[in-house]
Amino acid sequence: MVEVTEAVGVYPKEAVAKVKKSKNSLLIGLPRETAAQEKRVLLTPEAVALLVNNGLQVVVETLAGKQSKFTDQEYSDAGAKVVYAAKEAFDVEIVLKVEPPTLEEIGFMQVGSCLISALQLGKQNAEYIHALNGKRITAIAFENLEDKVGGMPVVRAMSEIAGSTVMLIAAEYLSSVSDGKGLILGGITGVPPTQVVIIGAGTVAEYAARTAIGLGANIKVFDNHIYKLRRIKQLLGQQVYTSTIDNYTLGQALKEADVVIGALRAEKGRNKIVVSEEMVAAMMPGSIIIDVSIDQGGCVETAEMTFHDNPTYLKYDIIHYCVPNIASRVSRTASVALSNIFTPILLQMADLGGAEEMIFNYKWFMKGVYTYRGSLTNAYLARKFMMTHKELQLLLAARY
């Protein structure tokens, strides 16, 4: 555990960080994920080989890639140092992790080092932020990172995977084997197609719609942003039913739905509930609701977070599937996608000389920073945890 002095907001002075600043000599750690539901890893052995060939050093905790079917031998052959103690994988300049570290794991980290991981707002508390600041860690939430054209590459990649995967999940739970309605997801000659309602018109919705249409299902897409509805029709390349969200129209669509996908992304803080408990109660028994946005609070009133080992429950005879990290079901695909995003970022970081130089030189990278050298720099987190924050650009200006 990290000792912090929360009462006055002053953090203890630490010894000077061991972080090296010479270019192309970054030491990167890849710890094993300890959360039971997390099976992804941020670098594949192929990515590690590329990084090592460019002068970076990579430390991989044993079994870090096991859940994604990457072996220690593959990482070792790629040039990584495989270690058997978690502390060694955290005692580096840059820690790469999917789930945010525990307080104990933060204690393993170097003073002044860099953490790149998910932030997962719904799970965090002030103690986590104090622990990071107590070690003057620069923490970067990878879901907030932008690319050079203003997109969010990690969110986009995981949303593509989630959107494609939700229809496979729906097909599984509609089958008689899973005690569902006994329907094929789609349709065949002479049999009416299944009805799919998608709430939200972002990337998850786009890929869910593509998969559903490919299987022959009828889809209806709801969103309160007209431009998103227009865009999804253009991306799908065909006329589909679209509507803004109002209680009557959405309620009627839900009564006829076999599958409902909640794919609304929160714009500020927690999601809004758009599917009420009364709407759920009026649905056909045996239908399935998959709330992909459950990690942000969900958009269905009856949705409660579940996990991969027990992913569903019944309410009003409606099957609810509310697992927050759907992409972890296909962990190897997700790991390759994440690795493709972070490998070039790490190479850029090495060329510049470290994470601080990346923050200073690239605004798109700066977007992900939420703690910097002992200060909270994210205004939303400050309001949520009733903490003070400092503007990152002012801190950078003072430093340079």
Give an overview of the whole structure.
This protein has helices at 45-53, 72-77, 86-90, 103-108, 126-134, 153-174, 203-215, 226-236, 247-256, 277-281, 331-352, 355-361, 363-366, 379-385, 392-399; strands spanning 27-30, 57-61, 81-83, 94-96, 114-117, 138-141, 195-199, 218-222, 241-243, 259-262, 288-291, 312-315, 318-321, 369-372, 375-376. It has 400 residues and is α/β, with parallel strands linked by helices. It has an eight-stranded mixed beta sheet with strand order 3-2-1-4-5-6-14-15, sandwiched between helices. Helix 1 (45-53) runs parallel beside helix 11 (331-352), helix 6 (153-174) runs parallel beside helix 7 and helix 6 packs antiparallel against helix 11 (331-352). The longest helix is centred in the middle third of the chain and has 22 residues, at 153-174. The model is unreliable at 1-22 (pLDDT under 50). Keywords: Oxidoreductase. Its EC number is 1.4.1.1. Residues 174-322 form the Alanine dehydrogenase/pyridine nucleotide transhydrogenase NAD(H)-binding domain. Residues 29-162 form the Alanine dehydrogenase/pyridine nucleotide transhydrogenase N-terminal domain.
